[in-house]
Structures are given as structure tokens and as C-alpha cells.
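Many introductory courses stop at the sequence. We go one step further.
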Amino acid sequence: MQSRLLEPRPSVNMLAVVLGISVLISFGCSSEEIVTESASENLAKPAGGAPDPAVKAAPRPGKTPKYFNLRDSIAKQREELRNVPGRTGILTEKKRYSLFDEELIIRDFFQDRRSGFFVDVGCAWPVMANNTAYLEKHLGWNGFAIDALEEYAEQWQRARPASKFFAYLVADKSSDDSVFYRSENVGLSSATRERADGVHFGGTLNVEEISIPSISLNDLLDREGITKIDLLAIDIEGHELTALHGFDIERFRPDLVVTEGKRPEVTAYFAEHGYGAIKRYLAFDTVNVYYAPVEVDAE
């Protein structure tokens, strides 16, 4: 067993980096719950001189950003979720890597099955606040990690050698020239400026418009010779449906799909393709939705 160090308490702005605007307004992180292989591994600046992800967003004049007053209420919400009746087995354990309990829910669904294949879209850091780190490090899984910012590549190569990192914006079709907005808080970078500049916090962040290649999941998976996915995780700040339109879900038929946000149009997409939200997980995670083929498990 490799030694692990507890990372220091993340600032509220760090939570914004990891989760994005919509999740931070609902949740936050308690003190000792982010555990990594080393305390500095993922808190270091990404390759290429990226700015410190904990840089603060400047508040709008005359308005106090909501996140300044959320810590107590966030901690209370987290405690309430952890105490929701119905947790058994794996769900009662303490997570090691994911920011919330995504890791435990995924493990519970697969019952710690070994040697699966995942696709992690919008992966960001390889260990800190990552939903697939446990699968690779403890259960022998491997997979594809995809993020629009290439600066995460070195960290993935070092911390997650069994998986392969790809620097693409995942979209409904492939292109050599797609617009992406890189935020000074790299975890808030997005395909839309409004998501990247922090205005939803009542603050502003510097944003750089960059041109990057985009790819559809179909094109990437076909190019790499992948025919079956066990887990598909998508966290791309409201662009999940765009990515799904470039994915042949009937052909690859993932056993479990995890998407951030509870958007009716995404639920409708899955319903059209024979997937339903797994009801037993709704009480344990109010941020993400877990979909499975209805004939397998939608209860």
C-alpha cells in the first residue's frame, strides 16, 4: 500500500476550480477528505506555467460573491448526505480520491469489479477530486482521460500510467480548430466564456480564448480500436449533450454513465436510448446522475 498524505484544506476558490460554478453553489469540501499520493502532486502548477488554481476571483463592485458565505451550509449539506438512510457495504466507506462520494457510488455499482475500461471526459487532475483514480489504482482498471487542456498530460503520465490522456475538446463532431476559453482558474475553463470567467460567482477571472482540436467520442474510440466501455464519466460544464451527440451509445453500450448536473434534456437523451437514472443513488449525490440500461439497473 502506497503512503498517502492528507492535502491541506482547499479554499473555496479551489472548489470552484475542481467542480465548476454550478456544483460549488450547491456543495463544498470538508477538511480532510481529499487524499492523494503526495500532498504536492496535484496542487503543483500544471506543466507550461499555468497559474495557481487557487487564485481568487475578484468580486463585482457592490456585490459579495455567494461562495464567501457558503462554507457552513455546505458542510451541513455534506453531513446530511452522508447520513441519508440506505447506505450499505461500499457506500458506508470513506472515499479516497473523488471530491464527493462519486467514487463510492461507482464502486458500489460495479461491486469492486476488477479490470474494467473507463472513459473520463473532462478529467482534469489525475488523482485529486478524480472519480476514476480508485478504479485504476486499486482495482486494475485502465481507460482514456480526455481534457481540453494539454497541461494536464504530464500529471496523468506520472500519476496514472495505466491510462491514456488525450488533449481534445469533446464535441459532436471532430475539428482541427475549435474555440475554448482557458480560465486563470484552470478548472473553470470551458467551451463558453460565461462559464470560464466566473461571473456566476459574482466575480471575474481573466480568460484566454484559445484554438484547440475537438473530437467526437466515436472518432476517438474508433481510432483507438475500442469496442466496449464499462464506465463513461462526463463533466464538461453543461456541454454533456453536445458530447453525447457524437457518441454511439447503442454500439458502445456503457454499463454505467455518470454526468454532472441534472438537466432534463440529458435525461431525455438517455431515456430515448434505453437508459434510466439509478434511483437508489439520488439521495447520496445531488450533483451527478448515474444512468444504466433500464434492463440492467434503473432502480
